[in-house]
Automatic annotation (TrEMBL):
InterPro entries: Ig-like_fold (IPR013783), Ig_E-set (IPR014756). This is 1,4-alpha-glucan branching protein. It comes from Pseudoalteromonas lipolytica. The lineage of its organism: Bacteria, Pseudomonadati, Pseudomonadota, Gammaproteobacteria, Alteromonadales. It comes from the Bacteria.
């Protein structure tokens, strides 16, 4: 799940990435804005979800995926969209335009 916070005085959007998976012990966010380098997500025991916040430039679109336990790739099932990648699957899309 994606949640976004827009700022009146900044040209950026704070995006909170949230991901749940029953077998996940470790989840990493892998995205264009991280140069496709994995970023660890923190597990919230209270909400039973992995979370990561990123500040992204306003009015852009970025591709991303989740890497579960260092082995399994998955998409955000509530992403802003999906686009085919070069591996025969799809990437999730996050859009930072104001609604």
């Amino acid at each position: 799940m994606l949640s976004k916070r827009f700022f009146k005085t900044k040209d950026e959007t704070e995006v909170t990435f949230e991901f749940q998976h029953p077998d996940a012990e470790d989840v990493q966010l892998v995205a264009e804005f991280t140069d496709w380098q994995p970023v660890p997500m923190k597990f919230s025991k209270k909400e039973q979800v992995f979370k990561c916040k990123q500040r992204l430039p306003l009015d852009k679109e970025f591709h991303f995926r989740y890497l579960i336990n260092g082995q399994v790739w998955d998409n955000d099932h509530q992403a802003d969209g999906y686009i085919p990648n070069g591996f025969g699957t799809e990437n999730s899309i996050v859009n930072t335009q104001r609604a």
